[in-house]
UniProtKB/TrEMBL annotation:
Coiled coil: none annotated. Residues 46-239 form the VTC domain. This is Polyphosphate polymerase domain-containing protein. One of its GO terms (biological process) is polyphosphate biosynthetic process. It comes from the Bacteria. Pfam families: VTC. InterPro entries: CYTH-like_dom_sf, VTC_domain, VTC_sf.
Length: 266
């Protein structure tokens, strides 16, 4: 059965004018950008999306599709260095993941850094058929990125630490993107435990080259404030409640339920 969140996003995407991937890459690729995340109930999202498209945002459309399946495997050290660096707000912090665009089969090895102004800077490299994200070529790429940006070496022992799956619809205007994710499921690769986000919620992220945008102000006018929630840190916070993650607990309760801590089936 279609979830309320998925239905709301699908309806909004159908109502929007289309925009092609080459147009997005030309006008709003935003490999360096400011990200802000929100957790929207389906009924609030419907109002938000109607105003968004009325202001000129279009829906990314590839081969007639406006909804795309994403599979991400996050990598971290045995001691979860990347997670703890984000928890502590360290300036030289990064995330590493393999992202699979399941509808096309494309696989990317991605490194996300924090820039000097607090912006997210993404570096990526396509993974060849049969290549693994923990392999020597990907590690060499990670080392090059970290040395160039931070003057540090790549950590040893990176391995899968969290897995996420979801559907994404993207709305685009000049220099801005709004991603709308539904059906988010987080899995622990060690135990197989899984948590699914509330079926009534849309995980919305605004992405732009500047700070607060008119899109963020629109969300504020609708009574929605940015959530302390990222997919990786939120996933670890719900999958491994023993970890210190107080800054994400409120958003995790909103996203996954009032009493996260016992694994549940997706």
């Amino acid at each position: 059965m279609t979830s309320p969140a998925l239905r709301a996003v699908a309806d909004a995407a159908r109502a929007a004018a289309p925009v092609s991937l080459p147009e997005v890459q030309a006008d709003a690729e935003l490999l360096a950008r400011f990200d802000r995340g929100y957790l929207l109930p389906a009924e609030v999202f419907t109002e938000f999306a109607a105003r968004l498209t009325a202001s000129g945002f279009r829906a990314l459309t590839i081969g007639g599709r406006r909804s795309f399946r994403y599979h991400s495997v996050y990598l971290d050290t045995p001691g979860l260095r990347c997670f703890h660096d984000h928890r502590q707000g360290r300036r030289l912090r990064f995330k590493v993941r393999e992202r699979v665009y399941e509808d096309s089969g494309e696989r990317q090895f991605e490194v996300k850094l924090k820039g000097r102004r607090g912006e997210t800077v993404k570096h990526r490299r396509e993974l060849a058929a049969g290549e693994i994200a923990e392999g020597p070529a990907a590690r060499a790429f990670l080392g090059d990125v970290l040395r160039d940006a931070y003057g540090i070496e790549a950590p040893d022992g990176l391995r899968p630490s969290a897995i996420t799956d979801y559907r994404r619809t993207t709305f685009v205007a000049a220099g801005q993107r709004v991603t709308c994710d539904t059906g988010l499921v987080c899995r622990d690769p060690r135990t197989g435990a899984a948590w699914a986000v509330d079926r009534r919620l849309v995980v919305v992220e605004t992405k732009s080259a500047g700070h607060l945008t008119e899109t963020d102000r629109l969300l504020h006018r609708l009574g929605v404030r940015a959530a302390e929630f990222t997919k990786y840190c939120g996933a670890l916070a719900v999958l491994r409640p023993d970890l210190p993650a107080n800054q994400w607990r409120r958003a995790v309760r909103t996203a996954f339920g009032r009493n996260p801590g016992l694994p549940r089936s997706a």
